[in-house]
What does this fold into?
Amino acid sequence: MAIRFPQPPDSEDQLIATINTTPLVDVMLVLLIIFLITIPVVNSSILVSLPREPVQASESQTEDVIVTVDATGAIYWFDTRLPGRQDLQELLARVSVLKPQPELHIRADARADYESIGQVVYAAQQTGIARIGFLTEPPER
It folds into this structure.
């Protein structure tokens, strides 16, 4: 059985047309507190002062291997043109067993096909060359 409250005889039940915003405000305050607690955890990092040095091009060392690919796709070992791709793989295989292993520097013409450059990288990968770098020129200021 439900509880009934006596109402005056002349009152009518009227619809309430306003929105009760109290639950909305309560939820928003809870979310605000949660965000305030979790944001510092997400952004936490160790504060370090990193050194500021200008970028300098490192000079190639004598043990680095330089392979050049020109615009036509021809491959050069230092300044000597290689007759075939098999010759490049044989030279890289000889270099890959040296201790410490030299770094392979690829100088590729900007107009060269990606296929020629990809073949040099693939040959280095097949022979076990661990470090490959691409030589570029710094941009003009």
